[in-house]
Structure prediction request, 229 residues.
Amino acid sequence: MVMISGNVHILEMLEPDFFGTVLNHNITFIEDGYKNGLAMIDTGLPGNMGIISNFLKKLKYNINDISYIFITHYHPDHTGNVNAIKEISGAKIIAGENEKEKLLNEDLFNIDYNDVKSTLNANEEEFYKTTDRINHIKRGKINADIYLKSEETFGNIKIINSPGHTKGHISVLYNNILIAGDAINNTYGIKPPFKFFCEDYNEAVKSFNKLINIKSKIIIPFHGEIIEK
Ligand SMILES: [Zn+2]
Ligand SMILES: [Zn+2]
Prediction:
């Protein structure tokens, strides 16, 4: 783990049985995110409120202190605890305009093993075990308070549009720290997201290049190791 200095803290969660491996999730908290509140970027899979709460306690915070949740995109590993946190803290939820439809629905993954077997290390059994598990995750319908139409700024937090993995994917730039969501994947080298997980792979590659070229010192991908430039 890289120690992120100052006001930025990473909670690393683990997702076992992810196509035959264990996938990590980097959930970011920023202490002076916006209006001096605690900002959270992405929230992990549903049912992890205890882990989030214990992590915050070590930082002398609790769930109630979360005032803004930035959602990079609608996938359940990013949005799983959004509604539960909002219920406790009343946090304002911020997402890209083009994620609205998917946030208000619970989508199923429709991927065929034959289309991914050359990319993934998983065998057929591991593949269907994972897609079946993912398709049974219930995160509830999410209605954001703010849907972003442009690259807005919230205090020290600057939104960067990074579509491709999903239509309305956003990333967050805080000083020289870039929180990239799934627009950058570092589980198999520093790469764009897996093609079969992209709504528009060409767009995803464009966004990847855009983010890599933004002036920053640290990139936090949601999956994989943190990148020090
Ligand atoms: Zn995703
Ligand atoms: Zn993800």
